[in-house]
């Protein structure tokens, strides 16, 4: 065992489905990327979408970009954990090998909206952790959407129109974090992840460990 490790570092645990949602532009993709860079032990669940790629987005890394016919085929073949209409396009979480990997202790990060969160939570309450990110103000939300420079004016307007209705789902989440400063928000989200990993119910390796301590 490495010197810095304690016996409990090796205990088996179930993986978790760590969901980040927010109104468009509040910063969940930014926080997701910071988390993925800092943490080796969490994988992004790459969604499938019919929306066209933004500049810099890579197929298979940021999304799987498909046409309507391919999305229809995936729905028919029951390939999705969940899917939803968002801003005039369809987005879905492919099943892949998530369920088995969770059993092996693999954590997954989901950047999905409130509809997808509801569907995942209904299917798998024990593994889901729901985090909602709020902008510090509506004016700042609009400034961020514009500063991203990736969307046409009508797209920005549609996202701003939906912002209040998306924010209204804040109380269906386990945690709510305001993203004023990205570093501070990231630090809070990471604390949530760390604490959730330590939940007794997830630490399946505790049972034999405690039995051994008590024997
Ligand atoms: N704390 C912050 N302060 C200032 N700018 C930020 C902050 N967090 C994110 N941004 C910027 O705001 C813009 C929107 O962020 P991001 O793309 O992460 O939002 P999002 O919630 O993922 O949006 P969408 O749902 O549309 O994908 C980006 O240009 C990002 O760099
Ligand atoms: N229900 C789902 N929502 C998803 C999924 N992937 C992304 N999203 C959400 O869509 C909006 C718009 O995303 P954008 O990349 O076009 O800005 C945002 O709220 C995402 O969280 C998914 O698989 N299922």
Automatic annotation (TrEMBL):
Membrane-crossing ranges are none
Q: What class of enzyme is it?
A: transferase
Instruction: Identify the residues that bind ATP.
Output: 22-29
Q: Would the keyword Transmembrane turn up in this protein's UniProt record?
A: no
> What Enzyme Commission number does this protein have?
2.7.4.8
Cellular compartments annotated = Cytoplasm
Occurrences of domain Guanylate kinase-like (ranges): 15-194
- What does this protein's UniProt record list under function? Essential for recycling GMP and indirectly, cGMP.
* UniProt name for this protein: Guanylate kinase
State the species of origin.
Qipengyuania profundimaris
Recorded name of the encoding gene:
gmk
